Amino acid sequence: MYEIKTKINDNSVIEFIENIENLKKREDAYKLLDIFTETTGFPAKMWGPSIIGFGTYHYKYATGHEGDAPLVGFSPRKAKTSLYFTTSETDRAKLLQDLGKHTAGKGCVYINKVADINVDVLKTFINQTVTFLNETYPSQ
User: Fold this and answer.
1) By 3-state DSSP, what share of the chain in percent is helix, strand and coil, each rounded to 5?
2) What pTM was computed for the model?
């Protein structure tokens, strides 16, 4: 049976950020930590070795696959910082249009630095994701 690799753990978020070699990327990680913490009201937790997540939800797909995931999060990778959020497709398209300099995949948005994006739009993205996931996967 498939085992989920990205699980919440007790690793230190601050220690993880302090180990980021690139000073600018480390500073951005602290900015994002503040933005996500203030916006969600949830404490930061490590998910797997490199994702900083906020809140949690339990999902279950029609296939029977289920698990837990952070509501929102980010990961300061070497090349770009990955932002993890999901909204309705309509909201996502509008928010991405207004976010600023980024690239987007199916589940992630990638930025080079926080200065490239509109922080107010980021906060809206975070809030809409939390609302969307809580409505889509209500707690039992």
Assistant:
1) 40, 25, 35
2) 0.93
